[in-house]
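Dear colleague,

Thank you for sharing your sequence with our group. We've completed the structure prediction you requested, and as agreed, I am returning the results in plain text so they can be pasted directly into your records. Please verify that the sequence below matches your submission; if there's any discrepancy, let me know and we will rerun it promptly.
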Amino acid sequence: GKIIDKKILKHGSHPAMEYLLNNKEGGQTKGTMVLVKKTIYKLEVTSKKTLTDIDKQHAQNFIESFDIN
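Please find the predicted structure tokens below.
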């Protein structure tokens, strides 16, 4: 896919990157990669269509619900 938006932030106390991709097959993926010590965790929500603002907020709420120890 192609990255259409990204930003560096924190997931809890861990460094993270949030991104939005346009998929090759159509649709979009909203995700976050979180760095914990030497491990990268990838949390994603993928849709076969373009995500609406409400879809993006639901995806973000889902991603933020993860507590990485």
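Summary note from our side: The CA atoms of residues 15 and 35 lie 6 Å apart.

Kind regards,
the structure core
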